[in-house]
Amino acid sequence: xxxxxxxxxxxxxxxxxxxxxxxxxxxxxxxxxxxxxxxxxxxxxxxxxxxxxxxxxxxxxxxxxxxxxxxxxxxxxxxxxxxxxxxxxxxxxxxxxxxxxxxxxxxxxxxxxxxxxxxxxxxxxxxxxxxxxxxxxxxxxxxxxxxxxxxxxxxxxxxxxxxxxxxxxxxxxxxxxxxxxxxxxxxxxxxxxxxxxxxxxxxxxxxxxxxxxxxxxxxxxxxxxxxxxxxxxxxxxxxxxxxxxxxxxxxxxxxxxxxxxxxxxxxxxxxxxxxxxxxxxxxxxxxxxxxxxxxxxxxxxxxxxxxxxxxxxxxxxxxxxxxxxxxxxxxxxxxxxxxxxxxxxxxxxxxxxxxxxxxxxxxxxxxxxxxxxxxxxxxxxxxxxxxxxxxxxxxxxxxxxxxxxxxxxxxxxxxxxxxxxxxxxxxxxxxxxxxxxxxxxxxxxxxxxxxxxxxxxxxxxxxxxxxxxxxxxxxxxxxxxxxxxxxxxxxxxxxxxxxxxxxxxxxxxxxxxxxxxxxxxxxxxxxxxxxxxxxxxxxxxxxxxxxxxxxxxxxxxxxxxxxxxxxxxxxxxxxxxxxxxxxxxxxxxxxxxxxxxxxxxxxxxxxxxxxxxxxxxxxxxxxxxxxxxxxxxxxxxxxxxxxxxxxxxxxxxxxxxxxxxxxxxxxxxxxxxxxxxxxxxxxxxxxxxxxxxxxxxxxxxxxxxxxxxxxxxxxxxxxxxxxxxxxxxxxxxxxxxxxxxxxxxxxxxxxxxxxxxxxxxxxxxxxxxxxxxxx
Length: 775
Prior knowledge:
Blueprint: H1 3-7, H2 11-25, E1 34-39, E2 45-48, E3 51-54, E4 61-69, E5 72-79, H3 90-100, E6 104-108, E7 113-117, E8 126-129, H4 137-148, H5 155-158, H6 171-185, E9 190-195, H7 201-215, E10 221-225, H8 228-236, E11 246-249, E12 260-264, H9 265-268, E13 288-291, H10 299-311, E14 316-321, H11 333-336, E15 341-343, H12 345-351, E16 357-364, E17 398-400, H13 401-417, E18 423-427, H14 431-444, H15 446-451, E19 456-458, H16 464-468, H17 470-474, E20 483-486, E21 499-504, H18 511-518, E22 533-537, E23 591-593, E24 600-608, E25 614-615, H19 619-630, H20 634-643, H21 647-656, H22 661-668, H23 677-686, H24 693-702, H25 711-727, H26 729-732, H27 749-754, H28 759-773
C-alpha cells in the first residue's frame, strides 16, 4: 500500500487490515486466543459535593490481549495509526502487560511490530520485527513457561481451564487466580492472597478451587469462613456450579460422601473435645483448605482456626484476606509466607472498581473534655468519679445520653439533605450503645419509623430479630432496614453493595478492624446509583487514613513468642461474638448521665485524593486545578470555548473530570446559581468578574443583535435568549428545545428551521448568538 494511503487509515483500519492478519498468519486462533478492545479498568470515580462521575481519562483498554487459552494471557499489543511510529505505543503496552502479569508487549502502526520480551529468552529485551515475523502461540507459550518456571509435571495443573461462568474475570482476578494456581502447581503448601474488600475474593477462590479440583480428580476441599452469612452467600452464589459435589457442614454432623465442604469454623470446633467434629475426618482427608477472611478478631477464634489448620497440616492452605495484619501465629505473612498477589484498596479505587469516599469529621464539645461537678451522681445513683473525661471515655466508662441524641440528629440531618433511604451502618462501641443509638435514631426519624418499624434496626450478635433482617439490609431490592446500628457483627462478611453512609462512633485502634469497617462501603453498584460513599466520623477514627500502613504492603505488626498472647495488643475481642478469656477481669464502671447537653462544634469535609490520601480541598480549589490542567491560559480557554460548535461538550468533558458546576455554584454563593459555566470557569480559574446569564442576555439585547433577523426567526432567537437566561447554554444548543413551549406555537421543528433558510443557516444563527453572548 502507498505510504500516503496508509497514513490516511484510522487506527481501527490499521488493526483490521494489517495487525489482525499478521496475528492470524502466525498461527493464533483469532476466536479463542485473541481479544480486542479489552477493558482493563472502569475509570476512577471523582466525588465533589454531592455529585460523582467517572474520570474517562483513567479508563484503560488494551487493543489486543493474546492468550494461551481463556484466562491465561500471554501478550498485549498496543495499536496506533500509521501517523505514529512503531515505538509510540510500547510504553502503554508495557503498562498493560504489567497489569496482566504477562512478559510480552508489542506495539504496532501497521508497518511492523516493536517486540518487548521480559523472558530474555534470546538475550534481547526489545527489537523491531516485520509483520511476517510475529511469534507463534507455541513459541510464546514455550518462553512463558520457562519464564514462570513451570515444569512439565506442573504444567497440567497450571493449564487447567477456568469454569466458564459467563462472567469475565477482571484483570486482577485473573492474575490472582493464576498466581495462586502457579504457586500450588510448583508445590507451595501455604498460599496467601491479599485482595481489598469488595474486589471479589469469593469468586477468585471459586476459580482457584475449580481448577485445582479439575486438575486433581477425587480431591477434597474445605472452605472455612467465620460468618454464617458468608458461607450461605458462597454456597448459593459463586460456588453454585459445584452443585451435587458440595455440602455445608452443619448441626455438628459429617457426611464424607462429598468433595467440596463449606463450613463455619464454629460449626466444627468447640471448647469441649466432642464438639471438635473436624476430627471425624482423617488428617489427610482434605487436599486443599481455603480460609476466607483469614485475619482473626479474638484470641478464642485464633486458637480454633489454628487447631483446624494444624490438624489438616498435610493439605495445601490458601488464605484470603483484605487485611493480613494480625498475629504471627495464625493468619499473616509469618504463617502463609509473602502474598503471591496483592490488590489494594487504593488500586481498586484508582481502577474504578471500588467506591471512593468523602469523610465528614465531626467534633462534639464534650469529647474535648468534660469534668463532673463535685458530688455529681449519674442516672443510676452512682457517684461519678471526679476526673476529666474525653473522647476515649465516651460510651465506655461514660454515657452522655444527650451525646447519642446529637449524633443521631447529625446523621438524620445528613440523610435528609441527601437520601433518607440510603443504606446506613452506624458502628457503636458495644451492644448497649447500638441499642441506644437505635432508639435515638427512630425518634429523630419518627415519621418514617412510625410507618415502618424496620426503618432503623439494631443488628448485633445478641439480637435475633435484627440478625434475621441482615439479609434484607444487604438486598438492594429491599428498602428496609435502612439504618443498621451495630458494634462488631457487621464489621466483616456483609456484602452491602448499596451502603452509602458509614458512621463511626466507636474508638478504633486496630488497622485491621478499620479496613474491614471501611470495606462495608467500598462496593460499587451503578444499577442503584452507588458510586461513592460518605463516612461520618465522630471519633477521629479516619485519622488512620493518614497512617502509612493504611494501604501499604502487608507487614507483620506483631510477632508473639510462645509465652505471649495470640491477640495483638491493639485488637479488642468483639463483645457480640462468643466470649473468649476476658482480657480484663475487673468490671468496668459505666456512668450514665442524662442532663449534660452535647453540641457539634466543628465539621471538616475531606475527599479521597488521586494519590490515595484524604485531602481537605474545596470544589473551588479542585476546579481551579483541573481547569489549569486542561487550559494553558485564559486566552486558551476563550479560544477553545469560542471555537467549539457545542459549548455543552466542554461542560460535559469537565464534569467527567469531577468539575460539577451546580455544586460549584452552591459553594461560591447564592448569586452563583444564575451563572453560566463559562462565567464560573473564568471567575474561579482566573478571577474574572462574572456576569449572570440574565445579565449576558440583556447585553445581547442592547446590541440590537436581532435587527438582522425578521419575523418568526427573530421571535425564535428572542425566545432562545430567554431560555438561555433561565436554563443555560445546553438548552439552546439542542434542536429538541424547538419542540417545547412556547416554540411549538411557532410551528414544527422543520417549519421553524425553514424560517432561517435551512438547518445550516439555523446552526449558524445559534453560533452567532453564542458569540454575542460571550463577546
